[in-house]
Amino acid sequence: MTKFIAMSIVVGMLITIVGQRTSADENDDAVKADMKLLQGVWLMQSFENNGNKLPADQAKTIKLTIKGDKYLVDLGERKFEATIKIDPTKKLKTIDVTMMQNDQKAVTHGIYEVSKDAFKICRTMEAGADRPKEFSTKEGSGTALAVYQREKK
What we know:
Blueprint: H1 2-38, E1 40-49, E2 52-53, H2 56-59, E3 63-67, E4 70-74, E5 79-87, E6 94-101, E7 104-114, E8 118-124, E9 143-150
Antiparallel strand pairs: 1-2, 1-3, 1-9, 3-4, 4-5, 5-6, 6-7, 7-8, 8-9
């Protein structure tokens, strides 16, 4: 009887370990798949911050390039670089954008959707603020919403 109990415990532990590894593999696969979709040059279609929309002609001059985990925004006269970390396994896919401000890391939290030709991101404008729970901005929300279309080659 003692051998049976010991064997049951060992089998249970093995099932737990294998199950955790499979879940981790699935998460890694999901991250890889979305990171692959995100790669490339994206042209902004619309942008709003705290409920205020940027005129379409201005928005369409902004370009985003994602290469690896590098997030490069080209505003024409100004450019900035950040890194991204995503988690596509959440109900609302999450993205963290990390940039340097005054020699300190600043991490803003967001949500995103991506497909072959479209990328939408809603994120906080202040480092450390709570992650948005929907793809919208309102006056005083501290969030920005950007919609991009993949650049055609």
